[in-house]
């Protein structure tokens, strides 16, 4: 099998020595070429070219941003070419997608699991989410957020550019500061889905393709615990933004069962084919932990069996 290994050299939890170990392990079993990303969206370009260059498998090492780029590159494979399989290895601070797949969170263990699956010819197809708007046409692997969490992602990006290291603690502290300042206390969102009554005056909306939404260290954060790669999209949206209600919901999100399907202060929809969100004023928007800018409308849809995973 011929494989392309796309490596983000800025991955926060790996070193050049550990990356060399992974390359050596994979190269012993596959015909392997290695490409390091050099700029934003480089991983997408490399993955998009992979099928035309004869690769049967694309392996990535990086965080959820690298995964998102590779997935969007693979999904742009021309129809007349066979789309390569994908094997993501964890190299970021959260690695939500890899962990949601049930794969090891440690790179060497994850590499071993991937190689075992490749030897056995094991693969699985998973669904993805797709974002369509006037500005975008992109796939997401686990979540899209409008409002509070996107504000947090935007601020963390700014802090990283100034030298801060991304970590669960940085995200949590940034989220708390944003909440205390009242950055998200604007009920501007309106949400629609086929077969549903529209809901309006919402403070924050999250659409997921799987669970969890993210991790607080080793603890999964589950606002939509029924969300699965094999189903449609799930929605969680806040109808209240009080300190007491938000604290209660965060406690539920961190519990083993996650947030129940119904309760005060929020709306929860399960297994939707499409969800549209509009805002009276531009609000921050993110997919897979990447801030895309401020938006007034986004259309999200479920794409079943979009991607073949090795591992």
Automatic annotation (TrEMBL):
Q: Which residues form a coiled coil?
A: none
Q: Mind telling me which SMART domains this protein's record contains?
A: DAGKc
Lineage of this protein's species? Answer: Bacteria, Bacillati, Actinomycetota, Actinomycetes, Streptosporangiales
Pfam families, sorted: DAGK_cat
List keywords of the entry alphabetically.
Answer: Kinase, Transferase
Name the domain of life. Answer: Bacteria
Enzyme class (EC, first level): transferase
Sequence ranges assigned to domain DAGKc in this UniProt record: 1-135
Protein family per UniProt: Belongs to the diacylglycerol/lipid kinase family.
Sequence intervals crossing the membrane: none
Enzyme Commission code(s) on record: 2.7.1.-
Protein name (database record): Diacylglycerol/lipid kinase family protein
Q: Name one GO molecular function term.
A: kinase activity
- Name the cofactor(s): Mg(2+)
């Amino acid at each position: 099998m011929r494989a392309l290994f796309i490596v983000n050299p800025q991955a926060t939890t790996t070193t050049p020595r550990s990356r060399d170990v992974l390359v050596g392990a994979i190269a012993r079993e596959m015909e392997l070429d290695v490409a390091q990303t050099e700029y934003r969206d480089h991983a997408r370009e490399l993955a998009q070219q992979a099928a035309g260059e004869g690769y049967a498998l694309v392996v990535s090492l990086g965080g959820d941003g690298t995964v998102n780029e590779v997935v969007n590159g693979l999904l742009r494979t021309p129809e007349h070419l066979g789309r390569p399989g994908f094997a993501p290895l964890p190299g970021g601070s959260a690695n939500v997608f890899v962990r949601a797949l049930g794969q090891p969170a440690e790179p060497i263990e994850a590499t071993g699991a991937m190689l075992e699956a490749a030897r056995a010819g094991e693969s699985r197809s998973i669904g993805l989410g797709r974002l369509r708007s006037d500005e975008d046409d992109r796939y997401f692997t686990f979540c899209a957020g409008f409002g509070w969490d996107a504000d947090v992602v935007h601020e963390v990006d700014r802090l990283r550019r100034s030298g801060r290291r991304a970590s669960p603690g940085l995200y949590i502290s940034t989220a708390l500061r944003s909440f205390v300042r009242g950055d998200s206390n604007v009920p501007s969102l309106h949400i629609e889905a086929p077969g549903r009554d529209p809901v309006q005056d919402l403070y924050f909306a999250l659409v997921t393709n799987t669970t969890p939404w993210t991790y607080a260290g080793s603890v999964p954060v589950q606002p939509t615990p029924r969300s699965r790669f094999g189903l449609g999209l799930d929605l969680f949206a806040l109808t209240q933004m009080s300190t007491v209600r938000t604290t209660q919901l965060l406690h539920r999100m961190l519990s083993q069962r996650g947030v129940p399907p119904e309760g005060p202060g929020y709306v929860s929809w399960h297994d939707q084919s499409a969800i549209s969100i509009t805002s009276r004023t531009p609000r921050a928007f993110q997919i897979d932990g990447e801030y895309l800018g401020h938006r007034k409308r986004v259309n999200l849809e479920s794409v079943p069996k979009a991607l073949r995973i090795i591992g």
